[in-house]
Specification:
The protein is α/β, with parallel strands linked by helices and about 400 residues long. It has helices spanning about 15-25, 35-50, 65-75, 90-100, 120-125, 150-160, 210-215, 230-235, 245-265, 265-285, 315-325, 350-365, 375-385, and strands at about 55-60, 80-85, 105-110, 135-140, 140, 145-150, 165-170, 190-195, 205-210, 290, 300-305, 330, 340-345. It has 2 domains: about 15-260, 3-Layer(aba) Sandwich (Aspartate Aminotransferase, domain 2); about 265-385, Alpha-Beta Complex (Aspartate Aminotransferase, domain 1), CATH 3.90.1150.10. It has a 7-stranded mixed sheet, with helices on both faces. It has a 4-stranded antiparallel sheet with strand order 10-11-13-12. Strands 5-6 form a two-stranded antiparallel ribbon.
């Protein structure tokens, strides 16, 4: 692999030079007031990215998986009933975590490539007149399939059913790249990580808790120590952590929020949508299809591209790495070998994306697929030229 080439995986994403420098800092006393000058602005910045005025933001030295565990362990009790749809590898893994925590998960099996079935959620929640379901899990952007789900519709299902269950949302590959509305959508816990939309190395689990979720923590009895939000809140009050924080990453997160907000969240989302649309134009020109079943669920951060029957999509990823020093994503779970994934989130521009499209195209031609060299690049070029980017477009 070449360190000079950008990566086109769904995370970790490319790191802007300014964020690399922000993470590369001298050691400081993490129990001094100086650390508070990093901690509190970072939390405030995340709150703005979540589009929230009420979220309590917690930042753990971990990854998105740790954020999932934070949501479960702080708000629930063993045996609690959970409602979740399984429509991809990451929703599957969160369900698996629930089961390991002795939670009773009602699973709505959903075809991979489809979004969350909000109508089915409403039926189940309406039938739950005893309000046994304590939380609803929702994966906003299923990274394995390139599928975006409608979180507003899930909230509407809860409201239509008059159900008090908490709404937990996995926004790991959406927050900071796609529109996310914590307050408007009535989200109770939002989970993300540092290595995707925030354009940092992996190492931080970032979660937002609503007032309802914070109230639930008072009676939750699932074991928790490292991920205890009350211990973390006490530390924050003293400009510190209950243990050693990842200071450099926190400094990077503070700068990442500043960069995103300076670009403007709407501009960030429009940039991602634009770059993704160019990728989709290329896929269409290749005569291939996305794993995502319909345009309303197309992700603006990752495209899972189906390869012809009998062709192993992983071969494209392997060949790209070996022949061209470029990274794409392999298929996972039920779509392993059936797709390859192009990540188009974080620090990217049209020009950077064109290099990824060109590389994927070369790989497919090298491996004997019936693809016309240059067809996808030309389609993406036509799209980008027809809808010029704002002059302020940059790689964040």
């Amino acid at each position: 692999m070449s360190f000079q080439n950008p990566v086109f995986i769904p995370g970790p994403t490319n790191i802007p030079e300014g964020l690399r420098k922000a993470c590369d800092m001298p050691t400081i006393d993490h129990r001094s007031p100086l650390f508070g000058q990093i901690l509190h602005p970072a939390r405030a910045g995340v709150k703005k990215v979540l589009k929230s005025t009420e979220a309590e933001v917690f930042i753990f030295p971990s990854t998105g998986t740790g954020g999932w565990e934070t949501a479960l362990s702080n708000c629930l009790n063993a045996g609690d009933k959970i409602l979740a749809a399984r429509n991809g590898m990451f929703s599957h893994r969160w369900i698996d975590m629930c089961q390991r925590h002795a939670l009773d998960v009602q699973i709505v099996e959903t075809p991979w490539g489809h979004g969350l079935p909000a109508d089915r959620y409403e039926e189940i929640l309406t039938a739950d007149t005893g309000h046994e379901i304590k939380a609803v899990l929702a994966t906003h952007n299923e990274t394995a399939t390139g599928v975006k789900s409608d979180i507003a519709a899930v909230r509407a299902a809860l409201d239509a059913a008059g159900h008090p269950a908490l709404l937990f949302v996995d926004g790991v590959s959406s927050i900071g790249s796609m529109d996310f509305r914590f307050d408007e959508w009535g989200v109770d816990v939002a989970v993300t990580g540092s290595q995707k939309g925030f354009m940092l190395p992996a190492g931080l689990a970032i979660v937002g808790f609503s007032p309802r979720a914070m109230e639930a923590t008072k009676s939750a009895t699932l074991p928790r120590t490292f991920f205890d939000v009350h211990d973390m809140a006490k530390g924050y009050d003293a400009n510190a952590y209950p243990y050693t924080p990842a200071v450099g990453l926190m400094n990077g997160l503070n700068e990442a929020c500043t960069m995103l907000l300076a670009e403007g969240l709407d501009s960030v989302f429009a940039r991602h949508s634009r770059i993704a649309s160019g990728v989709r134009a290329a896929v269409d020109a290749w005569g291939l299809e996305l794993c995502a079943a319909s345009p309303d669920v197309y992700s603006d951060t990752v495209s899972a591209i189906r390869t012809p029957y009998g062709f192993n999509g992983t071969d494209i990823v392997t060949h790209a790495a070996q022949a061209y020093g470029v990274a794409f994503g392999v298929g996972l779970g039920e779509v392993a070998g059936k797709v390859f994934r192009i990540g188009h989130l974080g620090s990217l521009t049209d020009v950077m994306m064109l290099s990824g499209i060109a590389t994927a195209e070369m790989c497919m031609v090298d491996l004997g697929l019936d693809i016309k060299l240059g067809s996808g690049v030309a389609a993406a070029q036509d799209y980008y030229r027809a809808a010029p980017a704002l002059t302020s477009q940059h790689a964040a």
